[in-house]
Amino acid sequence: MKSKYFDEWRAKYETMPGAKKYPHVFSPITIGKLEIPCRVKYAATEDNLNTHDGFITKEDIAYMAARAKGVAGGICTMQGVTTDETRKGQGYLGQACAADRKFLPGLTEMANAIKEQKAVSNYQLMHCGRVGGHWAKQAEGPSAVPQRLRLFEPVEEMSHARILECIDQHAFAAEIGVEAGFEIMEISGIVGYLLSNYLNNYTNRRTDEYGGDTVEKRFKFVGDIIRKVKAAIPADMPLLIRLCAWEQLDDVNGNTMEESLKTYLLSEEAGVDMLSITVGWQESTVPVISRDVDQGSWLWVPKKAKEFGVKVPVSMAYRLFKAEMADKAIADGVLDMWENCRPQIADPHMPLKFLEGREEDIRWCVACNVCLARLFRDAPMTCYINPTCAHESQPEWYPENVHTDEPKNVWVVGAGVAGLEAAWTAAERGHKVTVFDKNAEPGGTLLDARQAPYNDYELYEVTTNFGMAQGQKRGVEYKFNTEVTADMIADELPDAVVIATGAHYAKPEGWEGENIISLHEAINDLKPVGDNVVIWGNKKPAIGCALALAKKGKKVTMVGAEKTTGKDINPSFRWRYNIFMAQNGVKAYSDATIKEIGDGYVIVRYYDGVKFPVKADTIVYAERESNNALKEACQENGIEFRLIGDAAIPRGVSGAVHDGYKTGLRI
Ligand SMILES: Cc1cc2nc3c(=O)[nH]c(=O)nc-3n(C[C@H](O)[C@H](O)[C@H](O)COP(=O)(O)O)c2cc1C
Ligand code: SF4
């Protein structure tokens, strides 16, 4: 059976450059009995945009409609719905619920919104198990195994009767999804949610029929859910499941990869039509999706699943950001469907842009995990790099909808992230924009940051390429090697000035000596760096520089005034930097100052008054101060000005992108 818009999309692909460039991604696939025009799937994404009692909101619908448009005829999955009204399974503040018929109208609106974009609508059931209990303050699972992460609630062992009720609740929630009009049914059993808790040896310690010493025995709960859900949905509706292929919980005797792969074969036997392959648990200490993990590095996992004997189609996301990678994987028979979550948080239309041959317009995810950090801290979805994320229901948030009637001659001073972003958004609205930068190329602070290891160059590449491409398309004029002075402003009197001049590394007063150099000089090899380096600063730029120098064989010590090293990095990524520092032998003293600089050493004063010497052939200053000198020139000449990005307060890339975008919208 063909999906509703199958023929329309297939005809459209004929004329699209992306369909020729990525013929495997844009080839049809049959899942169960349903034929789908392409192999793109937006993976389920909690966004905390729904009401706190589980009703779908217009914000969530608009968020999803944008992603549905982006899958270009493929599958669009709504966030996992919780299945019980005690909400022990609810993991997130705004998680949608399907435990009662009262939720049906919102779910129907959601299914319609996805289908209106001519995507295939997928509905996901997700009991969060030991990651649940957000409101109930009590999670439930196969056994009361204590949490490893303090963030999560205590776990209560499910009684036999509760297990049967929970299975029935999954079937009931599935019926609601069918009635709402969804076309595909999916069950999520990933990263430590309920189904995975039953499969796992460490979290399932039951001695009844729902536990046991083999994965086959522990599979019973999952098998019962698959069979009951299958019975509750129409015979021609595909049933999908997301399960972990490798939990990465070896340290607590979790399942081996072989045990996990067996659950794939068992799921097939129980009746699923496609498997979504996932890796890792929230309680695992192994990174799977952060930026330091190379793109495409998990493709060996679906390959292994196929070698293990999986017959149904398999999909996978997991830092598989590029269509060319997915296309090759599909061509090689490693993967059947390209799934993605964060790439479409960062750019809802990402696959569609591949199809339309507009790759330069893609706003790439930088795998920083701010979206996840916010989810866990009960904040509505936001993206580090995409200022429109979660504002899809607000047309005024988009520059093309707020054209100006009074075009201005706008000068943007600084071609860093903030300046580039402000320039293209202002130009889109109709302003005449000129960008100046004293450097020969765009990038600002990121010209230094890109030298840091662990894929930090992606931050530079993504923001600079995107910003430049957008500005060039809209007629922005760029003047590099040009430093804007107060006199230039006074002479030429632009209508408005956006001061996006970034920040500089500030040498503390009284620090003099050949061996005292800036981060810019150190990271770009502009001055000699000795074997023993002390870096003044403990925020992200200092950490990047410390790691870059450590990789060159230097012995690096960081000394910083912040109480925590990397306080400016979100907690879902900071732990990675802590590990990198340990792995590279970088020592860090927080809540500390440099009291004295001597010949080959510094004296560090710790927060408690203790002083001690640290060897230092070179001292690098990495604390930043804003460059905001042009402010006065604008004020003196009565010119409208905006101070944005690091020029306002030195921060990270996100502050710069969001400042720049909003400034372009408002100027
Ligand atoms: C903010 C956020 C919310 C998520 N919510 C869900 C969910 O509701 N159900 C689910 O099965 N997976 C969920 N995931 C996991 C993603 O679907 C996906 O498997 C993961 O992000 C890796 O893919 P990516 O590298 O393309 O982001 C979520 C991920 C993120 C970042
Ligand atoms: S917040 Fe970061 S990880 Fe999440 S989608 Fe945006 S760029 Fe990607």
Largest sheet: 8 strands, parallel, barrel
- Which fold does the CATH topology of the largest domain refer to? TIM Barrel
Please identify which CATH superfamily of the largest domain we are dealing with: Aldolase class I
- Helical content stands at 25-40%
Shape designation: globular
Beta-strand content bin:
15-25%
CATH architecture of the largest domain: Alpha-Beta Barrel
Task: State the name of the first-level CATH class of the largest domain.
Answer: Alpha Beta
Q: Summary?
A:
This protein has about 675 residues and is an alpha/beta fold.
List the helices and strands and how they pair.
Layout: H1 6-13, H2 17-21, E1 29-31, E2 34-36, E3 40-42, H3 58-70, E4 75-81, H4 104-116, E5 120-125, E6 139-141, E7 155-157, H5 160-180, E8 184-189, H6 194-199, H7 215-218, H8 220-232, E9 239-246, H9 257-270, E10 274-279, H10 300-308, E11 314-316, H11 323-331, E12 337-340, H12 342-346, H13 350-355, H14 370-376, E13 409-413, H15 417-428, E14 432-436, H16 446-449, H17 457-473, E15 477-479, H18 486-492, E16 496-499, E17 503-505, E18 516-518, H19 519-523, E19 532-536, H20 540-551, E20 555-559, H21 571-583, E21 587-589, E22 593-598, E23 601-605, E24 611-615, E25 618-621, E26 624-626, H22 630-636, E27 640-643, H23 653-666
Parallel strand pairs: 3-4, 3-12, 4-5, 5-8, 6-7, 8-9, 9-10, 10-11, 11-12, 13-14, 13-16, 14-15, 16-27, 18-25, 19-20, 19-25, 20-21
Antiparallel strand pairs: 1-2, 17-26, 22-23, 23-24
This protein binds flavin mononucleotide and iron/sulfur cluster.
Iron/sulfur cluster binds next to α12 and α14.
